[in-house]
Write a structure and sequence with these properties.
Largest sheet: none
Structural class: mainly alpha
Mean pLDDT: 88
Helix content: over 70%
Shape: flat
Number of strands: 0
Low-confidence stretches: none
Order of helices and strands: HHHH
């Protein structure tokens, strides 16, 4: 017991314990709270279908996935349209936005 305490004290002096900081990944600016909730609902429907394997659950899941993808595409379109519109009269900013849009497409591959 005393050896454990001495070892712990020595370690605390050399390498003190500190709380871990979580590095959160940068979220996409177009990913709203509504889309986050839809994603949770999609995962719930997937789980339901995996356990039941019924045709009706599969149909609900497929329909919801299409709805989720449509909503995601619309949110991206609105966000990127606003970016382009904000840089409309500034050519350098417009090219920067365009380049960032093209770079994200190549990074996804």
């Amino acid at each position: 017991a005393s050896w454990d305490r001495a070892a712990a004290e020595a370690l605390d002096r050399v390498v003190p314990l500190r709380p871990l900081t979580r590095c959160r990944s940068q979220r996409d600016p177009w990913f709203s709270e509504e889309l986050r909730e839809m994603k949770r609902q999609k995962l719930c429907l997937q789980s339901t279908w995996r356990t039941s394997r019924s045709e009706s659950d599969w149909t609900c899941l497929r329909f919801f996935i299409r709805t989720y993808l449509r909503a995601t595409r619309a949110a991206k379109c609105v966000h990127f349209s606003a970016l382009v519109a904000s840089a409309d009269n500034r050519p350098a900013a417009l090219f920067r936005v365009t380049r960032s849009l093209l770079d994200t497409e190549t990074r996804e591959d």
